[in-house]
């Protein structure tokens, strides 16, 4: 079923409508995993015929109904994305009702209670390594694992790689296996990595920080 959704998602339309084409597309990559680059593209792309094939294999050939939840605080990108997903899933027999949750209730519903069967989510990690992302987004019981996903092998591999040097000969094979698992089971369907846009008017010396907050100390007027 998740693969049916992954092939139904209108990635390019979402990227243009929700992100204005700014960012890193995370779809249409190679299925073979030959490196540990992160973030990485999934092997999925928009193909409604493939989506329908997976629907038939899933036992839901006649479709079903499901709410698609979004946060009103993030409606600027979530709402256009949700509308496009709603239309696309309708093409393969999935009737989607968009549920708009107030921002004040979103964190509780999606991250604490983890009660949303289908929803849009965003997560910005401070460290740009796959094991760090897996720790927060794929390990059981962790806050940003909003899909409430658990896989025993992922639990073991994430724990093993978190404290391992990245040049350790065991690191890359373990990370590749982690990629294989989640891109097959699809607790999340990657859309894109948004760009961080900075506009300066009469200033120079801007420095990017991992926490994505502005540090004014190095800024100078010109």
Task: Describe the fold and architecture.
It is a single chain. With 222 residues, the chain is of the alpha+beta class. The protein has one domain (2-195): Dipeptide-binding Protein, domain 3, CATH 3.10.105.10. Helix content is 39%, strand content 12%. It is built from 8 helices and 6 strands. Strands 1-4 form a two-stranded antiparallel sheet. α2 (11-19) runs antiparallel to α4 (75-90) and α6 (130-137) packs across α7. The longest helix has 16 residues, at 75-90. The protein is globular. It starts with a helix and ends with a strand.
Give me the secondary-structure topology.
Blueprint: H1 2-8, H2 11-19, E1 23-25, H3 48-58, E2 64-71, H4 75-90, E3 94-101, H5 103-112, H6 130-137, H7 152-162, H8 171-185, E4 192-194, E5 203-204, E6 220-221
Parallel strand pairs: 2-3
Antiparallel strand pairs: 1-4, 5-6
């Amino acid at each position: 079923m998740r693969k049916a959704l992954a092939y139904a998602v209108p990635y390019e339309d979402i990227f243009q409508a929700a992100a204005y084409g700014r960012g890193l597309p995370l779809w249409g990559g190679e299925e073979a995993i030959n490196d540990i680059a992160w973030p990485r593209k999934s092997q999925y792309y928009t193909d409604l015929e493939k989506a329908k094939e997976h629907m038939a294999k899933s036992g839901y050939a006649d479709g079903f109904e499901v709410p698609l939840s979004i946060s009103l605080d993030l409606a600027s990108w979530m709402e256009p994305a949700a509308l496009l997903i709603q239309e696309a899933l309708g093409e393969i027999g999935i009737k989607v009702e968009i549920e708009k949750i107030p921002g004040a209730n979103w964190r509780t519903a999606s991250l604490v209670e983890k009660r949303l069967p289908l929803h849009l989510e965003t997560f910005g990690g401070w460290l740009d390594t796959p094991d760090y992302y897996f720790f927060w987004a794929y390990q059981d019981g962790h806050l940003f694992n909003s899909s409430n996903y658990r896989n025993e092998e992922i639990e073991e591999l994430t724990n093993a790689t978190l404290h391992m040097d990245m040049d350790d000969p065991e690191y890359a094979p373990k990370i590749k296996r982690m990629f294989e698992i989640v891109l097959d089971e699809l607790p999340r369907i990657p859309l894109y990595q948004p760009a961080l846009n900075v506009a300066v008017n009469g200033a120079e010396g801007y420095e990017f920080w991992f926490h994505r907050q502005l540090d004014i100390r190095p800024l100078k007027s010109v």
